[in-house]
Amino acid sequence: MIIIKTAEEIEQMRLSCRLAAQTLCMIAEHVQPGISTNALNDLCHQFILDHGATPSPLNYRPSPQNPQGFPKSICTSVNQQVCHGIPGPRVLREGDIINVDITVCRNGFHGDTSKTFFVGPPTSRNSKIVRVAEECLRIGIQAAQPGHTFNAIGNAIEPHARLNHCSVVREYCGHGIGRSFHEEPSVLHYANPDKIAKLAPGMIFTIEPMINMGKADIRLLADHWTVVTKDHTLSAQFEHTILITPGGNEILTLAGGEQDNLSAGAVGAENPFSMANN
Ligand code: MF3
Ligand code: CO
Ligand code: CO
What we know:
Layout: H1 7-28, H2 37-50, E1 54-55, E2 75-78, E3 81-83, E4 97-106, E5 109-118, H3 127-143, H4 151-163, E6 167-168, E7 174-176, E8 183-187, E9 204-207, E10 210-212, E11 218-220, E12 227-229, E13 235-237, E14 240-245, E15 248-251
Antiparallel strand pairs: 1-4, 2-4, 3-12, 4-5, 6-10, 7-8, 9-14, 10-13, 11-12, 14-15
Helix pairs in contact: 1-2, 3-4
Bound molecules: 2-amino-4-trifluoromethylsulfanyl-butyric acid and cobalt (II) ion (2 copies).
């Protein structure tokens, strides 16, 4: 069952999602050569606590392999890591790309957003995948209109990835979000005509395409969390939490003031993916 949020719940979600976006905004300036992913984790952890919330990933989803659940407060996925990378002693180097995925729980409501950063200046090797992943999120958001099916989202994203000779990861999807970190529905980033449920005002979910330079196939590392590309090619991801409104949608994971918090280069008159319904 897909939950339709009440006006009060939507107000709470706006606050949680804004805090997640502000955390991502805060950490952006620290993503520099020489910093460890542990240091990024600790800065975000403290920032989230200082703002009266808790980091949703910490101890999330214990399993027989991981009795403590996810061991850190954010996910940091570097280069060929697709998602769910665990912060640790690894030090970032110029030329790396890193997705930082932030989920906070404030007053019982979760907000979830992520972005892929360049470590140092973009390179000829890494700039395309980041651009395409960001465009895929934007295209997915544009397709998320009341009355459209959930299939419209993946059906819009997948051709854009393919046109750019990139691939869409199939095993991990966007998700409903609210009082639970992951709720129904699963939001696929590839076409599946079985996804006939329709978007309706009051639904809140994430769109978070994981886009690979090479093949879509992935592998899970021995830590039972980190997902990597099987062919070791680069992978990038951007994520927003959105609310379906009567007239379109509202991106909830904005830090405040800005039109959107995707990377600066994608915003402008020449960008064909600007948000029409926002
Ligand atoms: N934030 C991720 C998502 O977008 C989920 C991370 S779960 C964790 O859905 F346990 F790895 F943190
Ligand atoms: Co996330
Ligand atoms: Co998510």
